Amino acid sequence: MTDEAKISAEDRNLVLASATDYIESWLAGDGDRMASCMHPELVKRSVSADPQTGSCIVETLSREQMVEFTRQGEGAEDAGPYEISLLDAYGDIASVGVLSAAYMDYLQLARCGERWLLLNVLWQGRPGR
């Protein structure tokens, strides 16, 4: 990456803090914390193969659905270690990987005022989960 749109150390910490809020709120069932790290227009998607046709099935969740699933404690069974990695950042956008016990999530974040919010999430379950 060039230095033309390098983010500051403070922004790097804010990006990683938003990713941490995402995974920790999921595991703890904290809907308010989950809502705080997501842009109102967040879209979360996963892809899988249709077992009958082999075609690609895309499951899409909204911010509201994610917050509600979090409040219901859906993530509590996924407790375990996790790793967060800043994959890339440029100006006002960033990509982060979150590898948890149950999932691999790729987060796309955007600077929204003074905050970094999740805008898109692409995820996949890990084998055996």
What would you note in describing this structure?
The protein has a single domain, classed as Nuclear Transport Factor 2, Chain: A, CATH 3.10.450.50. The protein is built from 3 helices and 6 strands, in the order ααββαββββ. The protein has helices at residues 9-28, 31-36, 63-71; strands at residues 38-49, 56-62, 82-90, 93-100, 103-112, 115-125. The protein has a 6-stranded mixed β-sheet with strand order 2-1-6-5-4-3. The chain is globular.
Structure keywords:
single chain, 129 residues, alpha+beta, Nuclear Transport Factor 2, Chain: A, six-stranded mixed sheet, 3 helices, 6 strands, 27% helix
Sum up the overall morphology in one term. globular
* Number of discrete helical segments: 3
* Order of H and E elements: HHEEHEEEE
Q: Report the β-strand fraction as a percent range.
A: 35-45%
Report helical residue fraction: 25-40%
Give, in spatial order, the strands making up the sheet with the most strands: 2-1-6-5-4-3
The CATH architecture category equals: Roll
Oligomer: single chain
Q: Total number of β-strand segments?
A: 6
* Sheet with most strands: 6 strands, mixed
Structural class: alpha+beta
What integer is the average pLDDT? 94
Integer-rounded radius of gyration: 15 Å
Query: How widely separated are the two ends?
Result: 35 Å
The low-pLDDT segments are: none
Q: Please report the first level of CATH classification, the CATH class.
A: Alpha Beta
CATH topology: Nuclear Transport Factor 2, Chain: A
Number of domains: 1
Draw up the topology in text.
Layout: H1 9-28, H2 31-36, E1 38-49, E2 56-62, H3 63-71, E3 82-90, E4 93-100, E5 103-112, E6 115-125
Parallel strand pairs: 1-6
Antiparallel strand pairs: 1-2, 3-4, 4-5, 5-6
